[in-house]
Amino acid sequence: MKGIPLDGELGERARALLAGTITPVPARDAATVALLRPAAARPSPPAGVEVYMLRRTATMAFAAGAYVFPGGSVDPRDADHGVAWAGPGPEEWGRIFGADPVTARGLVCAAVRETFEESGVLLAGPDPGTVVADTTGDDWEADREALIARELSLAEFLGRRGLVLRADLLRPWSHWITPEVERRRFDTRFFVAAMPPGQRTRDVGGEADEVAWLRPEHALRRARDGAIFLLPPTLRVLTELAAYQDVATVLAGERRITARRPGVAEVDGRMWLVIPEDPVP
């Protein structure tokens, strides 16, 4: 069995869950994006890729201290039809992720919004064939902070700047559902995207106290050494990305998206979180 021991409060909740004495909280729709760039060349090719990661602050209610990709919950306004759109439509994304078109629209918009909020990178452009070249400056920062504060919706932000959301720059990667034992749960679709030319990430603060570009294999090694903490879905995505030679190959790959949800089990009197290798039935 591949799993993680559950002790303390989580262990007690796991027992109660198996006994049917507690009801799982609903999982909220969420989106996260593994933002990629070419890694610095090694002594011999291939160079591989680097992925942008944030360390969540120790005060966060969910996944405190974990290294994660930019992402978060879907804002109800993310499904606004006023968002100018380029690339595969909500119906196609819904087919890929097993969601209705309204939910799929919200997921894609949340992916773009959260990436901008948490990295300063914007997957949008003046027209369907271009991408914003620079998102630095006080005016961009004011808009980013307004998005975080929910004082500004994605549709309002893009519309005011005359920008088109570039859904074609995103690729679907995986789908994970927070285990039922957790008090906060998310139904998260994972995307990958290449770092747009001319743009750069920046330390935007807020929910993260550290940001870094890491080779997937480096992040995995640090996790094995206990230097960083990775949630099971993040660890799985990094393991998969470590096998790729370059960003273009990552984006060109065909993915069959199936939902995965860790479960709980009791083994020899101890509770365990079981990490699934196969899709949720």
UniProtKB/TrEMBL annotation:
Keywords attached to this entry: Hydrolase, Magnesium, Manganese, Metal-binding
Domain Nudix hydrolase: 26-236
UniProt-listed PROSITE patterns: NUDIX
Superkingdom classification of source: Bacteria
SUPFAM superfamilies noted in UniProt: Nudix
Keyword Electron transport tagged: no
InterPro entries for this protein: NUDIX_hydrolase-like_dom_sf (IPR015797), NUDIX_hydrolase_dom (IPR000086), NUDT19 (IPR039121)
Protein known as: Nudix hydrolase domain-containing protein
